[in-house]
Design goal:
The protein is mostly beta strands and about 900 residues long. It is built from 6 helices and 67 strands.
């Protein structure tokens, strides 16, 4: 008996080791590809004729047991699915990460139902997500935070790093947003409390084996389910739905038992056939949009030096050279409302708002060797899906620009300047007939026209087509249920241009091009079968045409414009001069005189390096709607600086986007002002009863440096003038002071003390030429008490001389023995002062060299432990 057992064991081991492995397998199991790259996948464990290959985004060409996959031309997370036709439950998913040379932001994808439908309080459903890091790789360890906007109706409890249990607490129909956050990413799911029709049955995803979609009737016509007690209870006339992830719904017409399976014949059904009461509201979540474009589109995504994303030139077009450093952005907003009341569809409304912006360095075009057509830019991005309860709608956005040059252009060079183009397409879908298809295409204006410039004389005709498009697609169970264009806006500009005069717009004599422009709004693509699908499910109808004009419209050419600064030479505006109100005055003329807008723009300010002020954007400081009228700019103290002066004349559509540039004959403007700083809030004077109370008023004229565009430095703080009244309870010595930039001012204050000790309040009026502080009243406390005082003295060995002048100061402070004193010697030329914080010398000699000519006031400022202050000063003249 034991021998037979050993024999059977050996036979079993032989069979186990020699039998081929079972089950469907695909290699590679995952992949990371560049946009447009190809990959060969190999399936094993199944008959090649029994395999069904599908991909969400890329292209698949089956070849027996293999399939050739081509990645799409944009960065995306794709999924290849291989299903055994004879057993649809046996399937393999191959994740494919398509990545360009750029970086993606962290993001979250919901892998359970995006809208979780609840029919009773206490019911729970699972919410599961996948987190992708900044490189687009799944991060299973990333911690996710789940939450509910209304915990009194719906609670969310994390059950794992990236899973949560959602529990409904309320019975009344409504929607609660569930927020999901990880790292810097955020997305939404939706908890929907609804009442189903009595004949409605919800199917679990695990029961569904396969489904058949009829594209002609836009409905599921067949469904194969796993045979379970729940599915065996299905009867004709009932309505089934699975949720947005599986995306199956319909009315049961017949039920066929086939062994371990149930086959259902289905008829079309809509939202009101599934729900008795429903109030569903959803919107697109915030999402880090990635702009991508294939090399065939002429632009590719590149990682910038700062770690951000930029668009760089890729595939070349003959005769066309693109600028570098382009940026693009696409934003989409969508709001969906579906409401069913007592089995009737009461409201179905969907708002779409798509905005696109493209800013690049433009291109240069050599007409002698240029290609007839070229794609300048093509930006594509995938947006998060939007749940329609029965399915999920995947959204994509595109922004592209193409150029076309007419044959036989004159030998010329065209520079289409870099700039910002903005588009907006809005659409409203409603269950009732819509009266508008969103905003009509706008005539090119400030926000939509390109800038143009020329590199050499010549004539040409160039057409620029630009389009912004939002697409939608519904896929489920490997079938395409519907797709098409949801919203679009675009235009065509036909430019006929000739060049005269200087070519470089930075040239002071630049006058702009002579041109003519015809504009035609672009026609939007139709939504395809997606419109029919949305209509069949929710009764939504696409907006009717707005009837906007589609015929070409000619836009006027530019006028000749010029302007000048009224005062000749480099104009210096000192805001501290009180003789006249300082202002910069400009005059403009236009020929022919036409209505328009003239703007004064400045570039500059207070900078240490020319590049910091004269390489950035301009700032508009004055505007007039009268081209022949004067403009006056009144700067404030914060406007101190050196400025380049420009003017912009905007007329018509082209002029609004491409202003005609010019500069006055005297293009530099210097704005200066005194700057009173560190003025004390209160002062205290101390003295003996019957004597004189003494104190010190100290303040500063803060320096601020600037520079001209040629690198010449200039001081932006002008002389500060300070004066006090001749008479008053508090007297200042000197009564008037003039401080250059960066210097401290010291005034010795005196007040008479009465015979009796006490503390008395007074005030010192102070007048300055600081435009922000023309008059200040400084509160003064006069303390008349007996006691020792620190008395400084200061002498100089000379009163003046030629620079460089060496002066020897003899100084000291007379104070009671052991008294704590501190003093500072300020040389009055802006050099660092000498300080004695822990006791002033009784007698000391200090040497100092005055390098620059000028009038200087050296001050020895002393304080004692009781708060008393005094000073001594000498004046010097350096030639």
């Amino acid at each position: 008996m034991r021998r037979w057992l050993w024999l059977l064991l050996a036979l079993g081991l032989f069979v186990a080791c020699s039998a081929p492995p079972t089950g469907l397998r695909v290699s590679p199991a995952e992949a990371t590809l560049e946009p447009g790259e190809e990959l060969v996948l190999t399936a094993a464990g199944a008959d090649a004729d029994d395999l069904i290959w599908t991909a969400e985004h890329g292209t698949l060409i089956p070849e027996g047991a293999q399939a050739r996959y081509r990645a799409p031309d944009y960065a995306v997370d794709d999924r290849i699915e291989v299903v055994r036709g004879s057993n649809p439950r046996e399937r393999v998913e191959v994740p494919v990460r398509v990545r360009g040379s750029g970086a993606l932001a962290p993001r979250i994808r919901v892998r359970s139902d995006l809208a979780l439908v609840f029919t009773r309080p206490g019911e729970t459903r699972e919410l599961a997500v996948v987190v992708y890091d900044a490189a687009g790789r799944p991060d299973p360890e990333a911690a996710v935070r789940f939450g509910s906007d209304d915990p009194t109706r719906v609670t969310v409890e994390a059950t794992g790093p990236q899973t949560a249990r959602v529990r409904a607490l309320a019975a009344e129909p409504g929607t609660v947003r569930l927020w999901i956050r990880a790292q810097d990413a955020e997305t939404y799911a939706w908890a929907v409390t609804a009442e189903l029709r009595p004949e409605t049955v919800r199917l679990e995803d695990a029961w569904i084996l396969s489904a058949t979609w009829d594209a002609d009737v836009l409905a599921w016509t067949g469904l194969v389910l796993e045979r379970t007690p729940e599915t065996e209870a299905l009867r004709p006339g009932q309505v089934v739905f699975s949720g947005d992830r599986a995306g199956v719904w319909g009315r049961v017409e017949a039920v066929h038992a086939e062994g371990e399976r149930l086959a259902l014949d289905l008829a079309p059904a809509g939202l009101s056939d599934v729900f008795w009461n429903l109030d569903y509201r959803a919107e697109l979540p915030p999402y880090p949009v990635t702009l991508t474009a294939s090399s065939r589109a002429g632009v590719q995504l590149a990682r910038g030096g700062d770690g951000g994303e930029r668009l760089a030139a890729a595939a070349a077009c003959p005769g066309l050279e693109r600028g570098a450093g382009a940026d693009g952005r696409i934003e989409a907003r969508a709001f969906l409302e579906l409401r069913v009341v007592d089995g009737a569809l009461e409201a179905a409304r969907w708002n779409l708002d798509l905005a696109g912006e493209l800013e690049d360095a433009g291109f240069t075009l050599d007409t002698a060797s240029a290609a007839a057509a070229c794609t300048l830019a093509r930006l594509e991005t995938r947006l998060p899906p939007l749940s329609w309860l029965l399915f999920s709608l995947r959204l994509g956005a595109e922004l592209d620009a193409r150029s076309a040059l007419d044959p036989d252009p004159a030998p010329a060079h065209l520079v289409w300047s870099g700039g910002r183009a903005r588009f907006r397409a809005e659409r409203v879908w409603d269950a009732a007939p819509a009266t508008s298809g969103g905003p009509p295409a706008a005539v090119p204006g400030l926000e939509s026209e390109p800038e143009i410039g020329f590199a050499e004389p010549g004539r040409l005709r160039l057409r620029l087509d630009r389009r912004l498009r939002l697409t939608g697609a519904v896929r489920a169970q490997g079938a395409r249920l519907g797709e098409g264009t949801l919203a679009a806006q675009g235009d065509t500009l036909l430019l006929t241009a000739a060049l005269e005069g200087p070519l470089d717009p930075a040239d002071p004599d630049y006058r702009g091009p002579d041109w003519g422009l015809a504009w035609t709004p672009g026609a939007a693509d139709g939504p395809g079968d997606l419109e029919a699908l949305l209509s069949s499910v929710a009764g939504l109808r696409a907006p009717a045409s707005d009837g906007s004009e589609t015929a070409p419209r000619r836009l006027a050419g530019p006028p000749r414009v010029w302007g000048h600064l009224d005062t000749g030479g480099v104009r210096r505006l000192d805001l501290g001069e009180a003789a006249t109100e300082p202002a910069a005055r400009f005059s403009f003329e236009a020929e022919p005189p036409e209505a328009g807008r003239v703007e004064i723009w400045l570039r500059g300010g207070a900078c240490e390096e020319p590049a910091d002020c004269f390489s950035g954007p301009l700032q508009r400081v004055a505007v007039t709607d009268e081209p022949d009228g004067p403009l006056v700019w009144h700067p404030e103290k914060d406007d101190r600086g050196v400025y380049e002066v420009f003017f912009r004349y905007r007329l018509g559509a082209v002029g609004a986007r491409h202003p005609y540039a010019g500069r006055p004959p005297d293009p530099w403007l210097l704005v200066q002002s005194p700057d009173l700083q560190d003025l004390p809030l209160t002062l205290e004077l101390r003295g003996a009863p019957g004597g004189t109370a003494v104190g010190v008023l100290r303040y500063r004229n803060a320096a601020l440096g600037g520079v001209f565009p040629n690198g010449t430095p200039v001081e932006l703080t002008s002389t500060l003038q300070v004066w006090t009244p001749r008479e008053g309870a508090v007297r200042a010595q000197p009564r008037k002071q003039a401080l250059a930039a960066g210097l401290w001012g010291y005034q010795r204050l005196k007040a008479d003390c009465p015979e009796t000790a006490g503390r008395f309040a007074a005030a010192l009026p102070l007048y300055t030429n600081d435009p922000e502080l023309p008059a200040v009243v400084v509160p003064v406390d006069i303390v008349c008490e007996a006691g020792p005082r620190a008395v400084p003295w200061l002498e100089a060995d000379r009163s003046g001389g030629a620079a460089s002048l060496t002066v020897t100061f003899r100084l000291g402070v007379q104070a009671a023995p052991g008294a704590r004193t501190a003093c500072t010697l300020d040389f009055g030329d802006g050099s660092p002062p000498r300080t004695w914080p822990r006791g002033c010398p009784a007698r000391l000699a200090v040497h100092h060299v005055y390098e620059r000519p000028g009038l200087y006031r050296a001050v020895l400022w002393a304080t004692d432990a009781g708060g008393g202050e005094d000073l001594a000063a000498v004046e010097l003249r350096v030639d």
